[in-house]
Amino acid sequence: MSLEVDQHLYDVIIMGGGVSGLRAATLLAAQSKSVLVLESRDRVGGRINSVEFDGYRWDIGGQWVGPAQKRLLSLIQELGQSTFPQQQQGKKVVEINGVFGNYTGTIPPLGMVGLIESQVALYRLERMAQTIDPQCPWDHKNAEAWDNISAQAWVDKNIWTELARKMIHIAVTSVFSTDPKEISFLYLLHVFRASGGVMRTLEVPNGAQQDRILGSAHQLSLTMAERLGGDTVVRLNHKVSDIDTTDPSKVTVTCSNGKRFFAKRLVSSIPPILLTRINFEPQLPMARQHLNQRMFMGMVIKFIIFYDTCFWRTLGFAGEILSDRHSVSICFDASFVDGSRPSIVGFFEGGHARVWSDKTQEERKAEVIDLLFKSFNDERAKHPINYLEKDWMKESESLGGYAAICPPGLLTSVGKTIREPIGRIHFAGTETATDCAGYIEGAIQSAERVTAELLPLL
């Protein structure tokens, strides 16, 4: 393939057209810096995406916003969008060991002992998380001990009742989309601390799932790309294959489509594991390579199932479901507040998502219908009018979601390289955030941080 070389020397090339990359490009452009965004997909948004149905754009990636996520709320306003509350009125449903029950509030009925133990466990997690410095969790006095065990190991040692263990398992899986046995306990505490605390992470009211974005979260990326100048600045289908920093004055970036570009600085806003596909000259330091190789993506399949009516609301249900079955772990009402566009959104997560990814869409749909029928005990659950889903593990430019995760032992060994520039290469993306890592808010915070890092150098 012959090369097509763009001789212009950009101030910054940004690899990745998700929220982080687009926000960084916007902030740099506002300071009169020349930027170019290279996106490997045929769309912008990264791990935020949408599909159209019934005249509306439905988020099949990230979608919620909490009251403490000030950067995201500000961006929503800046781009001319608004929010509306996540429906939460009514009875919630929990399925444990095939037995269904109803509850209100945050914690399901676990019996007196299980309830007390769950409350104590959440309090202990909150207290430990508050001692973490999000800037440098690896410097905590207990960092080595906490990083050397999994979240599951901590649960097994500190929680005795089966019901309480299962509820903690569901909670961890719903936040990280991986099983507790696969995640570092230190990393779990770090993310809880960086997200404002355990309960703020888990709750709907006053928590990370309090509101939704009218017009879709994906629209934020679409609008940012358009305001940057469309395909003049944001180049779709430009998958970076080679990055050369041997010239001390610039970075040379080559794409798999034969296009080559030059910049004073490069920002990577893609998940760490995707960096392992790129040829770097010279190679990245070994510690950074190790981080890229071992920081794995969560496993998630998101679905939205549509009905003629919000029949669950008329039955007094909120549409929120927690389950320990080996498939769907959590559901929410996806309808509008007024009951229009009746729908339920939910997730296959962690190891269960890995198993169900190999099944057919019809098999997954049947499993969702079975859960909803048994949760609401109503025949109408068996007759959806549409079913949409997104298997993020099969998206080659994401390899999973919601974010990359540190297994035991990684954070204290090479975790500090996550934000460290390497020569003219800088790093953004929600994984690098010190506030709401793994969330859209974290992506925006990382964009602000990397912009502040770059401006004095340009």
UniProtKB/TrEMBL annotation:
Q: Name one Pfam family in it.
A: Amino_oxidase
The enzyme class is oxidoreductase
Q: State whether keyword Flavoprotein applies.
A: yes
Q: Which domain of life is it from?
A: Eukaryota
Look up the EC number in the record and give it: 1.4.3.-
Q: Which reaction does it catalyse?
A: a secondary aliphatic amine + O2 + H2O = a primary amine + an aldehyde + H2O2
What cofactor requirement does the entry state?
Answer: FAD
Residues recorded as binding FAD, renumbered to this chain, are S20, V240, E431
Molecular function GO terms recorded: monoamine oxidase activity
Q: Which InterPro entries match?
A: Amino_oxidase, FAD/NAD-bd_sf, Flavin_amine_oxidase, Flavin_MAO
Q: Specify the Amine oxidase domain's residue ranges.
A: 19-454
Give binding positions for substrate.
F347
> What keywords appear on the UniProt entry?
FAD, Flavoprotein, Oxidoreductase
Concerning its family, UniProt says:
Belongs to the flavin monoamine oxidase family.
Q: Write down what this protein is called.
A: Amine oxidase
* Gene field: maoD
